[in-house]
Write a structure and sequence with these properties.
This protein has 13 helices and 16 strands. It is α/β, with parallel strands linked by helices. The chain starts with a strand and ends in a 5-residue tail after the last helix. Keywords: ATP-binding, Kinase, Nucleotide-binding, Phosphoprotein, Transferase.
Length: 409
């Protein structure tokens, strides 16, 4: 049975969607299906032999062949409809795309132009495209000027404005334009970087060609010098069963940090969040995930601006914890996962709120540790069992970790 669905692609998928719709990923017209994906990964070409360097995929869990999926931008505006012709057990989907509107989200949207628009403006003139992942230094600018003069070409700066650093990169391109020949164009392209540098370069060349480049230069790679840990954003994320002691440790850590001073502290306790940020949510898996995502969003925003956020939800599912870690690290902040590993028997023995008794009696469905699983983390940065240590000792262990990592001085 087919369905009409709505889906918000993640940041990378959204960037790839925009480039598919604009024609910057020509000859691709949609996300790769199984055969094309296999050939790209094995041989760097599509199933028909056309060279293509990198996977371009979309994951929509549960989608089936025949479904029509409306793809939305972060503000909920419809960008395209995907008619699913192929779906895999891993959630990857493929099929024809129908554009519904131009992408308008994000800074410098006015500088995001399609290859057809740029080619029309260039009117067949020889073009030197420069793809930028970092600012242009003086040597790069001199090389661009020399090559442009040799080719008698118009310079087209393509800042690959993806992620948190995107706006700064576009600003750098606009500033660089002042040093380059008159008539230099700046077009913002949301091309997500690929981990393999050679594949990333090949993809940049494909995009440059789509924009009409006769010659392509890759700008220098960005040099990132992260600030000292005590100036970076940090999320301390406690996870553990109800009654494990995580909230008490988290409160103790908050108090200790406020006494020390020097850091802006945001405290997000699971129970408090439930009454405010996530009021009305149930304890179903989907609502629990949504609760953790909301906590992660607030914590990420605090860390984005250099703050220290302390979170203390149960967070029973590994995938959702990983999602929060990725969100925090994507803004250049650090993430510290603390597993309060107090065993279920001890948590149930304490049962100060009577929750376990109610769960055993069937009054609370889907209760973590009783009728719903807790997936123990294997990536915890610190593990604390409060069965035989005091809360003060547990807080000291976390604080010592923060000091040894340089987050607190």
């Amino acid at each position: 049975m087919t369905a009409n669905l709505q889906w918000n692609p993640d940041q990378r998928e959204l960037a790839d969607l925009e480039l598919l719709l604009s024609g910057a990923f020509q000859p691709l017209t949609g996300f790769l299906g199984h055969d094309d994906l296999h050939e790209v990964e094995a041989h760097g070409a599509l199933a028909d032999g056309t060279p293509w360097p990198a996977p371009v995929t979309l994951r929509v869990p549960g989608a089936q062949a025949g479904d029509r999926i409306t793809l939305l931008d972060p503000e909920g505006a419809a960008l395209a409809v995907l008619t699913v012709t192929e779906s895999g057990h891993d959630g990857l989907v493929a099929g024809p795309l129908e554009a519904l509107g131009a992408a308008e989200h994000g800074p410098f949207a006015r500088l995001r132009r399609s290859p057809d628009e740029v080619r029309k403006e260039l009117a067949g003139r020889p073009t030197l495209a420069v793809t930028m992942r970092g600012p242009l230094d003086d040597l790069s600018a001199q090389e661009i000027i020399a090559v442009a003069e040799e080719l008698d070409a118009t310079v087209l700066l393509l800042p690959l404005a993806y992620g948190e650093g995107g706006p700064a990169l576009v600003r750098a391109a606009l500033k660089a334009r002042e040093k380059l020949p008159e008539g230099t164009l700046v077009v913002s392209v949301p091309l997500a970087p690929r981990e393999d540098k050679e594949i990333d370069l090949e993809l940049r060349e494909h995009v440059a060609t789509a924009y009409g480049a006769a010659e392509h230069l890759a700008g220098p790679e960005p040099v990132t010098l992260p600030g000292p840990p005590h100036r970076r954003g940090l999320v301390v994320f406690f996870t553990g069963l109800s009654g494990s002691g995580k909230s008490t440790i988290a409160r103790g850590l908050r108090d200790a940090l406020l006494e020390l001073g020097g850091r802006t502290v945001t405290y997000l306790d699971g129970d408090v969040v439930r009454h405010l940020l996530s009021k009305g949510l149930t304890f179903s898996k989907s609502d629990r995930d949504l609760n953790i995502r909301r906590i992660g969003f607030v914590a990420t925003e605090a860390a984005r601006h250099g703050g220290l956020a302390i979170c203390a939800p149960i967070a029973p599912y590994e995938a959702t914890r990983a999602e929060v870690r990725d969100s925090v690290e994507s803004v250049g902040a650090d993430f510290l996962l603390v597993h309060v590993s107090t065993p279920l028997e001890e948590c149930e023995r304490r049962d100060r709120k009577g929750l376990y008794a109610r769960a055993r009696a069937g009054e609370i469905p889907e209760f973590t540790g009783v009728s719903d699983p807790y997936e123990e983390p294997d990536d915890a940065d610190l593990v604390i069992d409060t069965t035989h240590i005091s809360i003060e000792a547990a807080v000291s262990r976390v604080l010592d970790t923060l000091r040894s990592g340089g987050w607190v001085r």
